[in-house]
Structures are given as C-alpha cells and as structure tokens.
Amino acid sequence: MVVAGCGVAGAEFLKSYFRDVLVVSPDHRLVCQALLPAYVAGDVEEEELCVDLMPFFENRGIDYRRCRVFSVKTRCNTLFTKSTNSSESLRGVGYDFAVIAVGGESCTYGVKGIENTLSINNLEQARKARKKMESAKDVIVVGSGMTGVEAAYELSKYCRVTLIEAKNRILPLMCERVSSCVEKILEKAGVKILTSCRVERIEKGTVHTSCGELNSDEVLWCAGIKGRRLPGLKYGNSGIKVDESLRVNRNVFAIGDCADVTVNGKIATKTALEAERQAKFVAKSIAGRTSGMYRPFSTLDKPFAIMTFGCRGIVVAGNLVLASPQGLIYRIKRKIMENFLKKFEA
Fold it and tell me: Containing H/E element for 123?
C-alpha cells in the first residue's frame, strides 16, 4: 500500500488502515487549513494548527519517504516521485494499492498575473502570505467562499480590505440567509464588498476588474480549489476522476481535495469533513469491510460549515443558520481542530 500525501485525507486513511504502508509526501506535518486565515493575520501560531506526523508514523510502523509524486503509470502500478531536497531524476515506486491524497491548488480561471498574488492552500504559502501582510495597508481578497470571507475578516483588523466576488452575492454556494448574515459581519468590520465583479488581470499594485482598476499592496487569491493534476490519471471538473466508490481504477483511489467526487448527482465539497469521510470509506473498502457507493455528506445542495469571525460564529447546515456572538462557536471550532490533531500525537 502506497499513500501519496498526508494532509487531512491521507492522515485519516493512515489512522483507519492497519497494514503495511509507505507514505510519500513532501511534508510530514498535518495542517488544519481551516485555521490558516487566522494564521495569516497573526492570530494563530504554527504550533496551534499543525502536528508532526513522524512520531505517529514510527509508532504505527509506517514507512515515510520525503518526496513529491509527479505522475502515475497505472498499467505498471507505479508512482513516479522525486525527492524534495535533491536534483535526482524521477524514481519509480511500485504499489499493489495506491491512495492518492495530494491535495489541491488554486483555480485561476485563466486570469493573467496570478503570479502577483498570494494564496493560502498550504502552510508554505500561508507563511509567505503572513510575512507579506505584516507591512500591507490595503489588501484585496479575491473569492468569497469560506476561506475568502474568513481571511477578509481576520485581515480587516490590521488593514483596509476589499473583498471581490464574481457572483451576485458572497458565499454563493450557500443559501442567501448565510450570505446576508456574513455580509453584515464583514461590513461592520470595515470590509468593502464588491459583488458581480470579475477579475480580468492582475499587476503589481493594481487589479483590473469589470468594476474598474483597484489599487492594493497585496492580493490574496481565494477563488476556489481544484485537484492537483497528476499525469497518467483522468481529470474531471475539479480533480482526479473517480467512480462512485472513489476508485480511479481497480487498485487506485483518490480522496480529499485532489478528487472530483460526484455520486448520484451529489457533488462532494472540498472540506476537511468530506476528506475524513472519504478516507474512512476507502480504508474499509480496501479491507473488504464495506462495498457499494460512497455517499457525500457536505454536498453543494446541502452545505455544512462552521465559520468564525472573531467572537462571532456561524454554523451552516443546509438552509439552517445558527449564529452566536458570545464566542461559543469559535471555541467549538477550535476544540474540533485540537481534537483532530491530537489523534495523531505520539
């Protein structure tokens, strides 16, 4: 068994699978991405949002190889990898079964000048963004999904923030009640919101949009996630194409942000909750303890989310919205994150 990647999906699979495993990943830390907006704003430190998985690997007898997967050749059951700290050529890693959990990357939508933006899809990117934000006075956040709205709020404590959304309201994948509630929170915090506004081109210091030119010190790109491409695997609308059992083929699975999961018309969102559920399903499937279809939970038609804005918090479950101004939801969210990381401590 070879597992590519040890983010939430990969780590949860390793927790649920009890046979010999080789992990190939460029990083052996598990990061709670839900806390990255607060980290970029300087309100959370690294030790609060990640855990080193090496002690966990050692205790479970899991082999670890620090390298990145570049391609997959399913005909000969081989992943092609390259070490992160050398200039060596690609190296083949054979497998009987493989679980691909290599994560995602930003959706760019063909916008020119993306290299002039910052993103927070992983800890390395978040470190760079945090350093840049220390001296920023005017920041533009592109994309108003959960990461975008939380990042806009956190950064508004220290600088002027403009939030840009191409759709006609923020949080467009959730019900209008959620959009309205979060919009009020952001506006009260001083965030300027521009909806029905498309980004056309980005230059240093200037963002060209359908609403005109906007100046800023930094641009944070939060306009969606798509699965990382691996040559040799079929790619769907948002990631590696899998069937209703999360299989790429008979002995390769893809889970988490890298996978395009649609079952009976239900689209699995790219959340930690879905990643955990997919990992557990695949572990049971390989062990022969379950069969049949995977059933997405946090789908686009019935989203589930916990969003925090300082002492304010919102829980979304479909069309149900629960808001709390006393910090209760924030403490619940932090506790969930802490408990998840503790599962992997030695």
Answer: helix 123-133
